[in-house]
Amino acid sequence: MPASTSSSSRTARTLIVVLGDQLDDASAAFADVDPREALVWMAEVAHESTKVWSSRPRIAVFLSAMRHFRDRRRAQGWRVLYRELTNKGAQWQDRPAGIRAWPEPTEERLGSHLAATLAALKPERVIWVEPGEWSVREELLSVVRAAGIPFEVRADSHFLSSAAEFQRHAEGRKQLRLEFFYRELRQKTGILMESGQPAGGQWNFDAENRESFGREGPVFHAPPRAFPPDSVTRQVIEVVNARFATHPGTLTAFDWPVTREEALLALADFIEHRLAEFGRWQDAMWTGEPWLFHSRLSAALNLKLLNPREVIAAAELAWKQNRAPLASVEGFIRQILGWREYVRGIYWRFMPDYVERNQLGAEHPLPRFYWTADTEYHCLRQTLTQTLQFGYAHHIQRLMITGLFALLLGVHPKRVHEWYLAVYVDAVEWVELPNTLGMSQYADGGVMASKPYIASGKYVERMSNYCAGCRFDPAQSTGPNACPFTTLYWDFLMRHETTLAKNPRMGMQVRNLKRLSPPQRDAIQRQATQVRLQCAA
Hints:
Elements: E1 14-17, E2 38-43, H1 47-50, H2 56-75, E3 80-85, E4 90-93, H3 110-121, E5 125-129, H4 134-147, E6 151-154, H5 163-170, H6 178-189, E7 193-194, E8 197-198, H7 231-243, H8 260-273, H9 275-281, H10 298-302, H11 308-320, H12 326-350, H13 378-390, H14 395-409, H15 413-423, H16 429-440, H17 457-463, H18 484-495, H19 497-500, H20 507-513, H21 518-536
Parallel strand pairs: 1-2, 1-5, 2-3, 5-6
Antiparallel strand pairs: 3-4, 7-8
Helix pairs in contact: 2-7, 3-4, 5-12, 6-12, 8-11, 9-12, 11-12, 12-16, 13-14, 14-18, 15-16, 18-21
């Protein structure tokens, strides 16, 4: 629809602001609102793709899902005032006629465009659901308060717990740990519970999960269902390639679910073909296999195309119908009912200062090859290549390949956070930041996790076949064939020995460090310095 036309000459009493990660038909923003007197406001704003150097797959997922949601809302009888990016500029769609003054802001920011809309339309009230990002929340509040228009911020009913509930859980605790919060949510919801006890008699099945493939490689598995771009997505791809041509990543293999219907098909596909083996192989990695037994549902969940309740219910039903073992189902549900809810609680409890934490004093820059995958380190090249191609890597690739290398190297945690937020299609700050800065980089000093997740190259060798395709030897820490992960692992232990010795979960690793002679320590530290110089080049 051209920018100069409108489906209605009516302005709106209620303006409903919908953000790019709130694409939920059942959103609280629409509850008790008459579509005839409301206008849904959505805006594609270039700044949202440039405040971190977002990859083209990430930008395309958001824009395509937003445009499909816009069309769905319109088909359901809602008027949607929509700002659409074009190859060179932007245009407003469904702008009410009769509005003479429609100022274009000088800043290409979400809040600036909302302020211009409020000045032009002067609605009686504004409604939105609480955002998932601290800065966006503050920006919306500032704009609407400055306009002097009554507003209502509604709780996000998408989640199974609230920020307030997590605050109550956290009160009086010296440490916050996933396990205890997860158990509370299991008891509260009845998920995987039988007569008040955990199904199967235990809360988790880690001992049965997280195996490596071994030399034979992964067993047969069906690849995730693909969703070839339709006309809307093809138009988005054209815009992204034109406007964000210098951004990392490619769109030649784009096939993500971007509608509610596609997301439901993706869920059904995972439950049918990969859930049964998910738990056993959830930490395994293999060359040329980006998906393995993973669900590929996190982007749809974080965009709100799927509700976590229906995802959990589908997995639990598969167990009850003997289509998937309890160990796999619990491992999968833990990621959603456990980690997803837990990291959201951490985010809102500790922001805005959380993003600035740097407990280990890491100051090195992020290696340039994180943006190009141009590195001779095979495990990193594998993970980074698929990240740039698909906007995806599974949780162990993120934690124990890209995250581990950055932690051992000593990269500033905020730079690592910005990279993760930029490159992954499922990255929304409330979920990405605690996982990156807290769990991966241990920059919060133990708020998120009880210890740094560190390992040598031997871990990578055990959990993948990456080392077989690499010239570096994970058993060596010095010399021309030394694995940089192993070198940096021992260097990390030496640099932080005093701090780590106080952590009871790090006792064995610190004791192993004491076996190194002074000449061995010196050689490792010299080699670590060379690795850092090479990564900074």
